[in-house]
Amino acid sequence: MEQRVTRKAFDEYMVPVYAPADFIPVRGEGSWLWDQSGKDYVDFAGGIAVNALGHRHPEVLSALTEQAQKVWHLGNGYTNEPVLKLAKQLVDATFADKAFFCNSGAEANEAALKLARLVGHSKNADHKNEIIAFKNAFHGRTLFTVSAGGQPKYSQDFAPLPPAITHLPFNDLSAVANHISSRTCAVIVEPVQGEGGVVPADPEFLHGLRALCDQHDAVLIFDEVQTGVGRTGELYAYQAYDVVPDILTTAKALGGGFPIGAMLTVDSLAAHFQPGTHGTTYGGNPLATAVAGKVFELINTPEVLGGVALRHLWFTERLNLINHQYHVFSEIRGMGLLLGAVMHERYNGQAKQLNQLAAEEGLIGLIAGPNVLRFAPSLIIPQADVEEGLNRLERAIARLCS
């Protein structure tokens, strides 16, 4: 008889880089999850902004099973139809001329940073290698990307780190203007800092970065791993800001739950990557790209993208009503369906506690640091599910405040 899997197995067999919840979800549909005991949860986390179409979307499931009947994997000595179709979709919908596919946001950012260094070396092999990044940023967990991220708690234990990376204050254009130089090969920025607290960039900040990069012949990289594929109400956030980067990274929602990432760029930069300079075994996998192609097709419509703004209002109006009664938040911020509820100073450091109480009430949310409750639900979540999830959150808030 097969032995039942329990949460205890994580502590027994898994490397402890996570501290997962006590319950184990086993089934999902739409904006709902069910655990081993049958308890239901409204999902406001979306797998950390991944499940942009919810769980088990029928058309995405069909795309996966259809491709699974054909070919799963080939390796990068061959190309395949789904990857070429997806590349054309991304190029047609964005500023980009070329796409490189990988397996995650971290890998997409790794490729972007490597390409930026390669471009810098081609202009001045000895000196044009500095990367400007921002404090509280998050770009991934590889050694290069965790070094570019501006949160020492994630990088300091792995020193020595890759050099020539400078961290400046986010949304402080004067700090960048005072520092950037001919040595700078790239500036990497999130249009909305996700892990850093759901903090949107000021429009003048991003416009200023574009101008400074042009002035100093540096590459502007937008990390849209969390903001991309409809999350902000535009297909990509750069379109909302009307600032065009040189390189854009995308992952998370791109696969709707299937692991995939991509780096998008223009011809003049893409040409610096030649056979052998970079690669990945699984990147551009037929299964992943078939799924991502369907996800992208479904999201890149006026109905879905326009619906994000409506859902933003559903969330913010109700959150403000709840907060009017309990005064637990000091601010509700974010763009589209990437939302942050900042804990009031009297509840400083209690975002995780509130998130745990919400889970007990049947709501799955996220945190972004110790003081921000974060929501990144399905882009097509029904209004009834939003209301039910916020009812459960209100019960959790009442318990926190009691």
From TrEMBL:
GO terms for biological process: L-arginine biosynthetic process; lysine biosynthetic process via diaminopimelate. Keywords: Amino-acid biosynthesis, Aminotransferase, Arginine biosynthesis, Cytoplasm, Lysine biosynthesis, Pyridoxal phosphate, Transferase. Binds 1 pyridoxal phosphate per subunit. It comes from the Bacteria. Its EC number is 2.6.1.11, 2.6.1.17. Pfam families: Aminotran_3. It is found in: Cytoplasm. Pyridoxal 5'-phosphate binds at G105, A106, F138, D223, E224, V225, Q226, T281. Its cofactor is pyridoxal 5'-phosphate. InterPro entries: Ac/SucOrn_transaminase_bac, AcOrn/SuccOrn_fam, Aminotrans_3, Aminotrans_3_PPA_site, Class-III_PLP-dep_AT, PyrdxlP-dep_Trfase, PyrdxlP-dep_Trfase_major, PyrdxlP-dep_Trfase_small. Belongs to the class-III pyridoxal-phosphate-dependent aminotransferase family. ArgD subfamily. HAMAP family: ArgD_aminotrans_3. NCBIfam families: arg_catab_astC, argD, PRK01278.1, PRK05093.1, PRK12381.1. This is Acetylornithine/succinyldiaminopimelate aminotransferase. It comes from Rouxiella badensis.
